[in-house]
Amino acid sequence: MAVEEPEVMAVEEPKGLDYIPEVILKKRKNRDELAFIRKKQLELGNFGKKKKKVADIKRPEDFVLEFRAKEVDLIRMKQRVKRPKSSPAPINSNLVFIIRIQGKNDMHPKTKKVLNSMQLRSTFTGVFAKATDGLFQKLLKVQPYVTYGYPSDKSVKDLIFKKGYTIIEGNPVPLTDNNIIEQALGEHGIFCIEDLVNEISRVGVHFREVMRFLGPLKLNKPEAGVLRGKKRVFSDGGDTGNREDKINDLIIKMN
């Protein structure tokens, strides 16, 4: 019997790898890296948040400097309050307009608490207040961060007409409809924006109710050179403290 010889399988030659341009490889790499970053952001709950820059990350020495600045702020506040009272400037009006012009990380929590009590929670906000000894004592505590003075009737009108608003259901609402004013203050005889301006200007009987109705006025950041960033008082060439009737010049530049 003839023995059948086994068939010899043909061995295929190995195929060479397809050539992929370097540009495509780089795009793939960038795409994979982006997908990995997005995955991590979702896992950490940071998706959509702005990534911190290296300059924003605080070093240990930054915390030390910030702590020291807050302690110095508290010491200076106590020194200002304890100073013997000099002869007070004559009060030209019962109405004071206060603007917060400075203050961030260098403030002591007690300073921040006083500012918050006057609704001055952010820089370049302004509020009207009745001129009292208690108010000026508060202003003395936060003097490096505020400037104030006696607004004219025109300044009051311009501020309320342009920047005035109230809060309804958590949202700021401009005073463009007198019905809003009447519903909130009609029981006090204040029915329109002109009544509201008049009550503020003369510090009327219902001034407190009007202030509760109004939100703190958000002013414009002044142009470069208007405020020089100096914590010295205005009378000594700085930015802070009492400007008396010169506050009207600053209001024009920030309204």
UniProtKB/TrEMBL annotation:
InterPro entries: Ribo_uL30_ferredoxin-like_sf, Ribosomal_uL30, Ribosomal_uL30_euk, Ribosomal_uL30_euk_arc, Ribosomal_uL30_ferredoxin-like, Ribosomal_uL30_N_euk. Keywords: Ribonucleoprotein, Ribosomal protein. Residues 20-85 form the Large ribosomal subunit protein uL30 N-terminal eukaryotes domain. The keyword DNA repair does not apply. GO terms for molecular function: RNA binding; structural constituent of ribosome. GO terms for biological process: maturation of LSU-rRNA from tricistronic rRNA transcript (SSU-rRNA, 5.8S rRNA, LSU-rRNA). Residues 96-146 form the Large ribosomal subunit protein uL30-like ferredoxin-like fold domain. One of its GO terms (cellular component) is cytosolic large ribosomal subunit. It comes from the Eukaryota. The keyword Nucleotide-binding does not apply. Belongs to the universal ribosomal protein uL30 family. NCBIfam families: uL30_euk. This is Ribosomal protein L30 ferredoxin-like fold domain-containing protein. It comes from Brassica oleracea var. oleracea.
